């Protein structure tokens, strides 16, 4: 399925704008701060139901406006479907979203099931390698939420139970009643943690079965922090002193290695910038692969100014990928040498 057009109303800096896209390549051109990334985020929001730049969704709505609308047209030559995401401010920093498919209201999960998929490439994704463990956890959670409808539910339940459990630990007065107060939340976080850990481990195993990209081999080592009933009992005295939960998937990390024969190096610590970017491409290419395997659909590729920070080798790798998919690229340059031979539609902002 292809993305043919988009309508943005009160979304970021777009008051009321419509854009059409090519079936193969669309180039969005403009100076900095003209809204190129915002347009890309509009497409991402229309497909995924959320933005990609931060968790504060109220910032997706134009300043001083109360609501926003994103409409995307998805389909093929014969049939197109309109997908709508409505964002309504309900408090100063909270947003309520409603979803429609062909003007019929849907739940978020129904919307996601019927919608196509998109994969984002951006220079900031180097933080998957150089950033905090939390950044890597968020990435894996995003991918797993895309391919497993139950994963997001377990993750939300776990995060809620973790907050409740930490509140009890922070505020307890009578130590003799603490265990009974925690019993329900202990059962809850263990149940959801087991699911989260198993799914993360399964996806990392999948990645390790597809280690090659551009003649290089990568692998992952999952540093999981399992949360079980026995482990909670082991750390109970420590948690009483610290007044917080000390174990669980919120402590997980992933180490990425680049192999050279029998040797391997942690590219977070020892990789060059080029090697780190190649590792990001390896992750994203496998993200495309698993989407295709699970949904039998080719995702739309969204590339946010990626050519400006890539070396020649990585540019060639990107070019080989985008030739096979509908792709939207943002750039400040409307004469990208790398795209000279590709048919394209140009949007100027």
From TrEMBL:
GO cellular component, one term: cytoplasm
UniProt binding sites for ATP: 30-37
PROSITE patterns linked: RECF_1
Entries under Pfam families matching the protein: AAA_23
Boundaries of every Rad50/SbcC-type AAA domain copy: 5-177
Family membership: Belongs to the RecF family.
Protein name: DNA replication and repair protein RecF
Keyword Ion transport (UniProt): no
InterPro entries tied to this protein: DNA-binding_RecF, DNA-binding_RecF_CS, P-loop_NTPase, Rad50/SbcC_AAA, RecF_2
The keyword Cytoplasm is assigned to this record: yes
Localisation per UniProt entry: Cytoplasm
One record GO biological process: SOS response
Function: The RecF protein is involved in DNA metabolism; it is required for DNA replication and normal SOS inducibility. RecF binds preferentially to single-stranded, linear DNA. It also seems to bind ATP.
Coiled coil: none
NCBIfam families: recf
